[in-house]
């Protein structure tokens, strides 16, 4: 099983990256957040891999860090959640945000993911309850008082996503504001993150 790849980024599409390691090109399926954060073509890249072997072959799924891979694996333990839906959830929620949504039973935040309806979102927050989704360095999950649901916004999620990529909070907020001004207030999170990263020159 492949757990990590380090090599040259040869090309990317909206869903995949081709990474050359020791002369072998690996096709790695990635979410929007991961694709947007990859370096320029020809640069060295490191991705954490979830390897899945099925009847039609082996597929590699790539992530920016171990926590994303752990959350991806945890999501697929939920009935009805496959790789596509798991990637969609991680496009709109970082692992820490997902942990918060599960702790607060905030199915609305999870349902922002493309292809994830209210029923599946409800199942996700229920079945992931009590599971560890992130490592200690991401900080503890803050539990809201009983009956309180913490709502998220696209701007806040985008800022948090950029900060998770190492962008300073002030720069992240300015980039997100620029992106939203260009795309409009109704823009979806993946589009906002891509535009914000472009504004940052990444």
From TrEMBL:
Belongs to the RuvA family. GO terms for biological process: DNA recombination; DNA repair. This is Holliday junction branch migration complex subunit RuvA. It comes from Asticcacaulis taihuensis. SMART domains: HhH1. One of its GO terms (molecular function) is four-way junction helicase activity. InterPro entries: DNA_helicase_Holl-junc_RuvA_I, Hlx-hairpin-Hlx_DNA-bd_motif, NA-bd_OB-fold, RuvA, RuvA_2-like, RuvA_C, RuvA_C_sf. GO terms for cellular component: cytoplasm; Holliday junction helicase complex; Holliday junction resolvase complex. Residues 73-92, 108-127 form the Helix-hairpin-helix DNA-binding motif class domain. The RuvA-RuvB-RuvC complex processes Holliday junction (HJ) DNA during genetic recombination and DNA repair, while the RuvA-RuvB complex plays an important role in the rescue of blocked DNA replication forks via replication fork reversal (RFR). RuvA specifically binds to HJ cruciform DNA, conferring on it an open structure. The RuvB hexamer acts as an ATP-dependent pump, pulling dsDNA into and through the RuvAB complex. HJ branch migration allows RuvC to scan DNA until it finds its consensus sequence, where it cleaves and resolves the cruciform DNA. It is found in: Cytoplasm. Homotetramer. Forms an RuvA(8)-RuvB(12)-Holliday junction (HJ) complex. HJ DNA is sandwiched between 2 RuvA tetramers; dsDNA enters through RuvA and exits via RuvB. An RuvB hexamer assembles on each DNA strand where it exits the tetramer. Each RuvB hexamer is contacted by two RuvA subunits (via domain III) on 2 adjacent RuvB subunits; this complex drives branch migration. In the full resolvosome a probable DNA-RuvA(4)-RuvB(12)-RuvC(2) complex forms which resolves the HJ. It comes from the Bacteria. NCBIfam families: ruvA. Has three domains with a flexible linker between the domains II and III and assumes an 'L' shape. Domain III is highly mobile and contacts RuvB. Residues 1-64 are annotated as: Domain I. The keyword NAD does not apply. SUPFAM superfamilies: DNA helicase RuvA subunit, C-terminal domain, Nucleic acid-binding proteins, RuvA domain 2-like. Residues 157-202 are annotated as: Domain III. Gene3D superfamilies: 5' to 3' exonuclease, C-terminal subdomain (1.10.150.20), DNA helicase RuvA subunit, C-terminal domain (1.10.8.10), Nucleic acid-binding proteins (2.40.50.140). Keywords: ATP-binding, Cytoplasm, DNA damage, DNA recombination, DNA repair, DNA-binding, Helicase, Hydrolase, Nucleotide-binding.
């Amino acid at each position: 099983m492949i757990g990590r790849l380090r090599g040259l980024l040869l090309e990317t599409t909206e869903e995949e990256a081709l990474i050359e390691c020791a002369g072998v090109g690996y096709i790695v399926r990635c979410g929007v957040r991961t694709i947007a954060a990859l370096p320029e073509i020809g640069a060295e890249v490191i991705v954490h891999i979830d390897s899945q072997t099925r009847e039609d072959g082996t597929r590699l799924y790539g992530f920016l860090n171990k926590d994303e891979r752990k959350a991806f694996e945890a999501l697929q333990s939920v009935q009805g959640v496959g790789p596509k839906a798991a990637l969609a959830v991680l496009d709109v929620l970082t692992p820490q945000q997902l942990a918060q949504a599960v702790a607060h039973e905030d199915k609305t935040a999870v349902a922002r993911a493309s292809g994830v309806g209210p029923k599946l979102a409800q199942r996700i927050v229920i079945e992931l309850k009590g599971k560890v989704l992130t490592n200690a360095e991401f900080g503890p999950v803050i539990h809201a008082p009983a009956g309180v649901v913490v709502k998220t916004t696209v701007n806040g999620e985008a800022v948090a996503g950029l900060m998770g990529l190492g962008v300073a909070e002030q720069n992240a907020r300015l980039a997100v504001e620029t992106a939203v001004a260009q795309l409009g207030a109704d823009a979806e999170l993946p589009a906002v993150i891509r535009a914000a990263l472009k504004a940052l020159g990444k």
